[in-house]
Amino acid sequence: MDKQLVTGSEALIRSLLKEGVDTIFGYPGGAIMPVYDCLYDHKHELNHVLVRHEQGAAHAAQGYARVSGKVGVCIVTSGPGATNTITGIGDAMLDSTPMVVIAGQVGAALLGTDAFQEIDLVSLTQPITKWSYQIRHADDIPWAVARAFYIARSGRPGPVVLDFAKNAQLAKVEYEPQTINFIRSYQPYLDIDEEAVCAAAQLINFAKKPLALVGQGVELGDAQKELLEFLEKADIPAGKTLLGLSALPTAHPLNKGMLGMHGNLGPNVKTNECDVLIAIGMRFDDRVTGDLHTYAKQAKVIHFDIDPAEINKNVKTTVAVVGNCKETLAAVTAHLKENKHTEWIESFKESEETEYNSVIQGELNPVEGPITMGEVVNRISVATNHEAVLVTDVGQNQMMAARYFQFTKNRSIVTSGGLGTMGFGLPASIGASFGAPDRTICLFCGDGGIQMNIQELGTIMESGATVKIILLNNSYLGMVRQWQELFFHERYSSTPMKNPDYMKIASAYGIKSRAVHLREELGEAIQEMLNAEGSFLLEVGVIEKGMVYPMTPAGATVTNMLLGY
Amino acid sequence: MNKKLYTINVYSENVAGVLNQVTTIFTRRQLNIETLSVSASSIQGIHKYTITVYTDAATIEKVTKQIEKRIDVMQAHYYTDDQIIFQEVALYKVPAVSLLGSNKVEKLVRKHNARILEVNQTYAVIELTGHPDDTQALYDELMPMGLWQFVRSGRIAITKSPVERLSNFLALIESRKGKNGAE
Ligand SMILES: Cc1ncc(C[n+]2csc(CCOP(=O)(O)OP(=O)(O)O)c2C)c(N)n1
């Protein structure tokens, strides 16, 4: 085949196209201008979404990746452009989101001289990426891009940074496409260990009270079908992590709800009663385990994970099944006996009733007083036939959405779990709308979080992204206020917040909107939002001092959940 | 927690920035690296690190896995002192007069099995290879005679096990390469 002489920027674009990239989120600047110049020529095949802040680019790429299962891509300039993406990179690292960030860099001759907009991005991002690499020569480009995508999407996915020196963008290179699916120092996942598989199956076959903990690893491994077969064959009830919520349909009889600090009572209480605890693609985050010294001490623990470094990191396992859970789950299922754990599963009912009576009933069906967050979430979930993609920001809105939104489809939750990044929701929802253009995208956010990246309304205006934004306005930084109420003697230090007129803001950006304060209007307003073409901002004035219950205080035992006042 | 000295061996690709990635893993966990020695190994393109650190068994296991997780790191293993043979090198500079005036220094050199690397009219340089206790003992004896400079290297170590883990790993990797198509 004839080799063609092209610029480094052109080589980059061709390499991206070769990786199947169709959408890029980004923001131009001096050190990345040659790439932007090239993008101009490739408009027809590469959709560039101009964000309003590079943090937005990173979160949008995350949202895109999470719903589509593809690698999210953003392109930014050097220096401040690059540093603005760091929150998103860290967020993607903690939540195992495949992402490639391409940042401009000063010319190689200027490196190390504190040149204009020079920042040592590789050093800055090494601890929060799977791989971070500086491209100094144009010849490197096809190799570096192929390697970046291979690393980002294989094994346990994660973010990769390519720091792209300007001279390499301009230099001419013979472009030759490259494919990488092997790196000798990197094993995306290990081969199945038959012994571990048999040991796990043995433990499960003899378990009287098994409990599964389902995490995002199931969706990342595309193993929802394998999960169902596993759970159904051995009749195992399952709790889900925040990021694993859509890995198992909410209505499935074996679904016992969400784990963790604001999760459901049942799976939390039962964690300390089960005899075999089966963690699947989850990493025992402290928001799930609470106090490790009292966590599931009675249980034998089986841990399915793709990342060997997760084994025994927080919870000591009895059997570790390392590998891609699509394969390992199937392998273990093959050794499982058909089983029934009727009595054990029935025993969840007590907690479910307690939680329903003391928390859920009041939250979802209040008869008077201000609107609650829970009822808004529930009504929107119902109105979308539980088929929408849920995107959340961080705070009470996030926990309420996670608790009361229902899931019927895979890859339906986009939220910042590990880093808990306020300002994540709005840009992530824009990204999600590009990653799943045929689905309804519902963003729940607080009045604090929306303002952290509110400029991305401009991206909606320009790109025509369709996002149904539900702003749950309680005039407080609600989640912090909740902690102040419970643990700081109601000293509301810097949490009451004066809000702007969101209707005016929406209208300034050409986005349809409506504000609701009365319960009677809520249903109709939701319909108006869902029927509207394009994006819509629905501001709901909710109870100012609402609380998310149940709650396990930080570091407390998972069974000691607070149920309310 | 039961702390003791662990030795970690790391094999990595010879690319810029790996050392940084390895050391930050210790920093994050507030672990102080006692010694660190890095150089090319006998295998083309592969660098070998020997790191020592005081910590407990649970932590060393986690740290080693996190090191191994870095893309450019091939393998990382940890050992206790009874599983390895290890050495450090120390260099001592003493004023020439302390050699000329008496045979004390010469006796010390013999006693400790050290070597004189260089002597001139101003100073002599002595080298000793051994465990930290050995190099420290000579240090303690030379000190009263006037010691101008002293330096000790990080530990290097080799396992007592007959199995060469890296070779096995490389063989496995090569076989995979066949399966997946080449890089
Ligand atoms: C970037 C960032 N800054 C601060 C926090 C700490 N924080 C967590 S929740 C929260 C309050 C969120 O308030 P709001 O967005 O109004 O949502 P609500 O809790 O009221 O639903 C804050 C400040 C955070 N998670 N992220």
From TrEMBL, chain A:
<keyword id="KW-0786">Thiamine pyrophosphate</keyword>
<dbReference type="Pfam" id="PF02775">
    <property type="entry name" value="TPP_enzyme_C"/>
</dbReference>
<keyword id="KW-0100">Branched-chain amino acid biosynthesis</keyword>
<keyword id="KW-0460">Magnesium</keyword>
<comment type="pathway">
    <text>Amino-acid biosynthesis; L-valine biosynthesis; L-valine from pyruvate: step 1/4.</text>
</comment>
<dbReference type="InterPro" id="IPR011766">
    <property type="entry name" value="TPP_enzyme_TPP-bd"/>
</dbReference>
<dbReference type="InterPro" id="IPR039368">
    <property type="entry name" value="AHAS_TPP"/>
</dbReference>
<keyword id="KW-0479">Metal-binding</keyword>
<dbReference type="InterPro" id="IPR045229">
    <property type="entry name" value="TPP_enz"/>
</dbReference>
<dbReference type="InterPro" id="IPR029061">
    <property type="entry name" value="THDP-binding"/>
</dbReference>
<dbReference type="InterPro" id="IPR012001">
    <property type="entry name" value="Thiamin_PyroP_enz_TPP-bd_dom"/>
</dbReference>
<dbReference type="InterPro" id="IPR012000">
    <property type="entry name" value="Thiamin_PyroP_enz_cen_dom"/>
</dbReference>
<feature type="domain" description="Thiamine pyrophosphate enzyme TPP-binding">
    <location>
        <begin position="393"/>
        <end position="540"/>
    </location>
</feature>
<feature type="domain" description="Thiamine pyrophosphate enzyme central">
    <location>
        <begin position="199"/>
        <end position="331"/>
    </location>
</feature>
<dbReference type="InterPro" id="IPR012846">
    <property type="entry name" value="Acetolactate_synth_lsu"/>
</dbReference>
<dbReference type="Pfam" id="PF00205">
    <property type="entry name" value="TPP_enzyme_M"/>
</dbReference>
<dbReference type="InterPro" id="IPR029035">
    <property type="entry name" value="DHS-like_NAD/FAD-binding_dom"/>
</dbReference>
<dbReference type="Pfam" id="PF02776">
    <property type="entry name" value="TPP_enzyme_N"/>
</dbReference>
<feature type="domain" description="Thiamine pyrophosphate enzyme N-terminal TPP-binding">
    <location>
        <begin position="7"/>
        <end position="123"/>
    </location>
</feature>
<keyword id="KW-0808">Transferase</keyword>
<comment type="similarity">
    <text>Belongs to the TPP enzyme family.</text>
</comment>
<protein>
    <recommendedName>
        <fullName>Acetolactate synthase</fullName>
        <ecNumber>2.2.1.6</ecNumber>
    </recommendedName>
</protein>
Automatic annotation (TrEMBL), chain B:
<protein>
    <recommendedName>
        <fullName>Acetolactate synthase small subunit</fullName>
        <ecNumber>2.2.1.6</ecNumber>
    </recommendedName>
</protein>
<dbReference type="Pfam" id="PF10369">
    <property type="entry name" value="ALS_ss_C"/>
</dbReference>
<dbReference type="InterPro" id="IPR045865">
    <property type="entry name" value="ACT-like_dom_sf"/>
</dbReference>
<comment type="pathway">
    <text>Amino-acid biosynthesis; L-isoleucine biosynthesis; L-isoleucine from 2-oxobutanoate: step 1/4.</text>
</comment>
<dbReference type="Pfam" id="PF22629">
    <property type="entry name" value="ACT_AHAS_ss"/>
</dbReference>
<keyword id="KW-0100">Branched-chain amino acid biosynthesis</keyword>
<keyword id="KW-0028">Amino-acid biosynthesis</keyword>
<comment type="subunit">
    <text>Dimer of large and small chains.</text>
</comment>
<dbReference type="InterPro" id="IPR027271">
    <property type="entry name" value="Acetolactate_synth/TF_NikR_C"/>
</dbReference>
<dbReference type="InterPro" id="IPR004789">
    <property type="entry name" value="Acetalactate_synth_ssu"/>
</dbReference>
<comment type="pathway">
    <text>Amino-acid biosynthesis; L-valine biosynthesis; L-valine from pyruvate: step 1/4.</text>
</comment>
<dbReference type="InterPro" id="IPR039557">
    <property type="entry name" value="AHAS_ACT"/>
</dbReference>
<feature type="domain" description="ACT">
    <location>
        <begin position="7"/>
        <end position="87"/>
    </location>
</feature>
<dbReference type="InterPro" id="IPR019455">
    <property type="entry name" value="Acetolactate_synth_ssu_C"/>
</dbReference>
<comment type="function">
    <text>Catalyzes the conversion of 2 pyruvate molecules into acetolactate in the first common step of the biosynthetic pathway of the branched-amino acids such as leucine, isoleucine, and valine.</text>
</comment>
<keyword id="KW-0808">Transferase</keyword>
<dbReference type="InterPro" id="IPR002912">
    <property type="entry name" value="ACT_dom"/>
</dbReference>
<dbReference type="InterPro" id="IPR054480">
    <property type="entry name" value="AHAS_small-like_ACT"/>
</dbReference>
<comment type="similarity">
    <text>Belongs to the acetolactate synthase small subunit family.</text>
</comment>
